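**Archive record**
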Amino acid sequence: MITSVVPKSSVLADRSDRSFPVSRTHSLGERIELFAFCFFLGMLCLFAFIEGRPGESAKSLLALLFCSFGLLRVIGSLLKDNFRLSILPIIAALTGIVLVAILQIVPITYLSYFHSEDPFDTKSFIVFFSALIIAAESLSYLVTGPRRLHYLVGIVIAIGACSAAYGIFRAYAAPPSEQYAQFINRNHFALLAEMSTALLVGALTGGHLSKAVRFVGCLLVGVIVYSLLTAGSRGGVLSLLAMVLFSLLLYPFVAGRDTNSLSLGARRSWNRSRKIFGVAAACILATLVSLAAIALIGGDKVVSRLELVRDEVESRSAQRMNRGTIWSITLDLIKERPITGAGFGAYADAITRYDRSNGSWELEQAHNEYLEILANSGIVGLTLFGTVGFLVSKRALRILRSEHRAIRSACFGAVVGIFGVLIHSLVDFGLHVPINAAILLVLVLIATYSPQSKTDVASRKELGFVILGASRWLAPLAYVLVIIAVGLYAGRQSLAEYLAISASTSASIAEAQLATRVFGADPNAQRVLGLLLLDRGEYDEALLALERAARARPGSYGAWQLLGSARYTSGDLYGAEDSFLRSIELAPSYSQPKFMYGLILLQGGREREGFNALSEAAENDFSLYPQVVELAARRHPDDAIEIERSARPATTEARTYLARYFISRSLMTDKSLAFLLSDELPGLDKYEIINDLIVRQDYSLAHTLWTATIAANGEPNNELIFDGGFEHTKGANQGAFGWQIDQEFPGVTSSRTQQDVHSGTYSLHLSFAGAVELGRRVVTQRAYVRPTSTYRLHFFYRSSELLSASNPIVIVTDSKNGVELGRSETLNSTQNAWIEATVDFKSTQTPAVNIALLRPSCNSNPCPIFGELSLDDFSLVDR
């Protein structure tokens, strides 16, 4: 390690004034350092249980507290006359990431390729990440021995265990939701559970623990693992399995490394074959046990969610927001900005250019930390993060060979926890949650912690004196200035965001204005102020606030869309048009900006352009299409051709809606009719439309669609009666112009039979037994006829025995009003011989009749019926 330190002479007093006062100052410095360490532990506990989601004011508040922690550490070290500024390669690599982010917001024209899509969020990233670096450097300075290291391990375990217990309680006491424990998302909790479980397991493997402590530790492991399973996080479960396998692979190479074992040559030369065989056997056993635990403890919830992994990963549709789709879109962004990315924190704004969905589900994260790093910072950023990972791994491997068993076990647990985070980060974004980022920072410090001997410290002090020399004030002064600058920015942002959230909840303009005065560069505060002023009707001030919000986030389509809506509301159509065009440029596939732009064009008299924009918006979001049709109908009342030309249905769903719209208003066009008759319209939708037409008594179009439908199904319909011989009738309902057979009729049993048919292969067989309801139709069919025309219905029947005072008849009625047009003779027993019967009738103005078999009225009471009846070969001829 290379460290930069001030020589032993105090920076607060001359060498001559160092007897008693220096001793008191040194003691005060130690107390401040102890307070700083306790402050950090308390800060972790506080933020571990703040409910929220990524991006809220808690992140900037945590950055402020990190800076306060760093400032306390600097003050303490200066008072002790022992200021040492760590310049470990890890810290240097992390600082390099901040420098890349700074490059992304530098307003230099020839660096425009590297500019961030969202400068404000990139600045927020710089502040938070810098605060993390300050906290990491300060914590590495303050953890001066194994005791404080154990406190760090213990606090992470305590946070994980308490969160797990809280999550289990909420899982059983609260309604099911995505939230688990204090986290808004179950996957965020899973990340914390993985890290705390790994540290706990590492502590249990360290030895020197009493049986009671080991028992409690094992109990806590069970609680955390159980909570992880009940949370139902697929990424968490898979990461847990990966951690088990990784720990079994790693542990044999770090176990038994204490001083006594290292002194024995026989133990140093392990049998590698036995080790490899043992590790392989342990991995197989651990996998089987873990799967059994998931099935038995996690239950159907975990198993069913694991079954959905394929659907989450495969990208099948541009409209469906599963992980596969998100990753595909993110790769498009990476290809466009491969060197330095779109800007740290700017993913949500940059991705809209490549998102092919309609924008109803906005992307804020890539659901893969590695892809998001590439999208935000390109190859340069990924290389720097990879360098950090390499340096941490290199140092951790050295610590894993430490002679100190407790340090070695803590490092082992931290390494396993970091590995779990790396695996889980392939499918989730849990590190966006501030507390998870802070806990990972702690794990990295635990994994790289190494106690320093006095000789090492003395040699580094000497080196530090050579580096600093007479400029010993420069390092602490520069460090303090950085801490203050980062802390002030974070503090102002935190307070402004808190006031903005409060103002939005309470609708307080005064709070919103205070938020903008505290931190005017915050677009969230400006947006809240603008919306509140807009609701009050103060358009000028509202537009100014929303314009400032849009300028602060020039790559945010939402900011420009909101500004356009505000300008539209205030009557500034030209300004609104410019804003919506900018929004469309930033999110070319999103529907809402195009829809609003189309409305503006319509209001400005540019009808064709307006409807083109509206139709494009509705093409990607069908929920907007009914509004497009209504707008077209208002401009062209009862003109189906112009409505169709304006609405421009581009999808099957839109064409179906427009056809239904025309039917509901007794309109139709050749294109819509051709669509209804085509195979493009699904059969189920076609049957529903036919039924709607019948309800509206449009029998002509209904029969035309019906004929096309059954022809497409390969069923002949050359006669006025559909399937008069029951050759194709299957089931109770054959559709609008097919046979309807009441199979729920008490006392009546119906079936198709091949026994003793009149012709063909099948006939309809009915059995009567008991009090069969009078007047209720057993079998019926609607037939399409010409108005005011004379017809004769032919059919054949047979019955071996039919006993009743009211045997069945076949009746023909008007489909519109039910008026009887004709009836057959009573169908009596025929001694099992087929007999032809006829019904003569004349149709009315209604071009449809109903043909039905029923029992007429009966003079006796009760009036049961017993026997059998077969029907076949119905036909209808024009007389």
